Amino acid sequence: MSTTALKASKVQTSPFEGQKPGTSGLRKPVDTFRTPKYTENFVQSILNAIPETELNGSTLIVGGDGRYFMSEAIRIIIQIAAANKVGKLIIGENGILSTPAVSCLIRKNKVLGGIILTASHNPGGPEGDFGIKYNTSNGGPAPEKITSAIFDETTKITEFCLVENIDVDLSKVGCTKYDLDQRTFEVEIVDSVVDYVAFMKEIFNFPLLKSFLQSFKIVVNGMNGVTGPYLKAIVCDELGAPKESTINCVPQVDFGGKHPDPNMTYAADFVELMQNSDFKFGAAFDGDGDRNMLLGEHAFFINPSDSIAVIAANADSIPYFKSRGLKGVARSMPTSQALDRVAVGRGMECFEVPTGWKFFGNLMDVGKVALCGEESFGTGSDHIREKDGIWAFLAWLSILACTKKSVKDIIEQHWLTYGRNYYTRYDYENVSAESGKKLIQRLRDLVKNQTLIGKNFNGFVVKMMDDFQYTDTIDGSVSKEQGIRIMLEDGSRIVFRLSGTSSTDATIRMYIEKYEPKPNLSKQAQDVLQCLVDAGLVISNLKDITGKEKPTVTT
Fold it and tell me: Max CA-CA distance within the chain?
């Protein structure tokens, strides 16, 4: 207990424009968060949006991906939480907690929620991005009604409260209590990985995986993000793989100069490693640990849309599902319909929701969904309420251990059984916000006027166009304008969205999908889909509007 009674004080402030949380919290350049009072305003607004009866005496989890400015942000959160009658903060050692680990701790400790310091797969460092998001008591990202309330608070804030002279050593595991205005405020620093690792041991058969890895060579890439300590603890300490099986596993404030986005472009060095080595299976993870890229021998790429479908089809390989059963599945709207075909085959329901993991939460909470995924390298189950990169890696490792087949053989057998949803995503990054809005508005005008219905583009005839709208089956909330869908008569799809994860300019995503019930395994997705890609570019007039001749990233 602190021997000196601490006092809260109020600081006058005024609103900052644009503090509207996106798909996963507020993301801006580091310099924006370092603007005097900017971070304080947003943290205070989070707490203001929580009813006082719930906030007083509550416990919150706090942690992040180790990126630049995280420690300073945690200090601000401690000061403001103490002044706003929060009872206790549980913080990861050195501030480190992966996003899945935060969800795990929220649910294990049954607390009010958590504050996560991350910009996920966005670059870090002084010139990079930072982010803050709030997760609720179910462990998942705050739903729209709460993020809207937070944004509303940011527009009218006039003061924030803080206790300036609280000094917390984030490197020292243990609990410290402070005497504050005739009440106790507590900060507990916990081991960042122990609870998460213990949970994974409950979900998966670690003895089986350990035995399997004695003769199966793998490599996992933390990309200098938050997953490094978790990977070392699981892959090396628990499963007995040699230390060479983990690379880039020390979290760095700038991710070692890397772009911590696990895809074929930003993890090209990892792809090359897999191509030129004898590793049978590889995985790479983003900055905060919720996204995954999985590669088979010689860098055989597992498309994320196929990944979730294969996990669903092989759910009995995972003890968690084998004992509980797979109740239902869900995917984001732009994700391919490969998962739908597995759901039909297994006689279970498949839900289609907007992009954003928060939309899966209600379905999970009432037991309708146990497995879900997004094409943006996000995969997870109802063990927590976040996508979970390491969980996805262990799920695939379990399938490999049970089937004794290669990644390529598993994928190809899946295509032969269910057909193949040829799929690609084109990302056009660093597009001006004006151009992004112009392109989407052009497409919305086409939806409104329905002028493309019946028209032929490269042999594909437009059957329907809409702007995806989702009504939550649990709480009745409605989410509008979630992506332009162009449905073609042969069942193919072209989808356009503006990304909600960029901190500055716009990112336009174009998704292309074509189903073949009896696929030719020698065909490459890009070759099959090129005519559809060209059709999408003509319909959207993307090149003329944005000036972009080619995508930044192709998945």
Answer: 78
Cα 190 from chain centroid (whole Å): 23
Ramachandran quadrant class, 450 (left: phi over 0; alpha: psi -120 to 50; beta: rest) = left
- Cα–Cα dist 157/16, whole Å: 9
| Greatest mean pLDDT among 64-73, 422-431, 490-499, 544-553 | 64-73
pLDDT in tens, 221-230: 999 999 999 9
Strand, helix or coil at 59?
A: strand
Ramachandran assignment for 299, one of left (phi > 0), alpha (psi -120 to 50 degrees), beta (any other):
left
Structure tokens at 433: 């916000």
Q: Residue 550, class by beta-carbon neighbours within 10 Å (0-12 exposed, 13-18 middle, 19+ buried)?
A: exposed
* Catalytic-role residue among 120, 305, 332, 376: 120
Backbone φ and ψ for 240, nearest 5 degrees, come out as 75, 15
What's 143's DSSP letter? P
DSSP letter string, 425-481: EEEEEEE-HHHHHHHHHHHHHHHHHTTTTT-EETTEEEEEEEE--EE-TTT--EE--
Q: pLDDT at position 40, please?
A: 98
Please say whether the beta carbons of 364 and 382 come within 8 A: yes
Cα dihedral 78/164/25/502 (nearest 10): -130
In 3D space, the residue among 469, 555, 460 whose CA is nearest the CA of residue 507 turns out to be 555
- List the alpha helices (DSSP H) in 97-245: 99-109, 144-156, 194-203, 206-212, 228-231
Structural contact between residues 115 and 104, judged by C-beta atoms closer than 8 angstroms: no
58 catalytic, yes or no? Answer: no
Which tokens belong to 241?
């793989």
Q: What angle do CA 512, 516, 518 make, to 5 degrees?
A: 155
CB 63 within 8 A of CB 97: yes
Q: What angle do CA 522, 528, 532 make, to 5 degrees?
A: 170
pTM, 2 dp? 0.92
- Residue among 131, 95, 104, 128 at smallest CA distance from 23: 131
Regarding beta strands 349-353 and 328-332, do their DSSP bridges make them parallel or antiparallel, or are they unpaired? parallel
Helix (H) or strand (E) run with residue 340 in it: helix 338-346
- Report how far apart, in Å, the C-alpha atoms of 261 and of each of 71, 396, 425, 517, 543 are: 22, 20, 15, 32, 25
Determine how β-strand 129-135 pairs with β-strand 26-29. Answer: antiparallel
pLDDT of residue 181: 79
Question: Once rounded to an integer, what is the mean pLDDT over residues 187-204?
Answer: 97
> Chain centroid to CA 75: how far?
25
**Nearest residue to 47 (alpha-carbon basis) of 139, 150, 169:** 150
Helix (H, G, I), strand (E, B) or coil at 35: coil
Residue with tokens 């929620």: 113
Integer distance in angstroms from the first to the last C-alpha of the chain?
53
CA-atom Rg of the chain in angstroms? 23
Give the whole-angstrom CA distance, residue 531 versus residue 522. Answer: 18
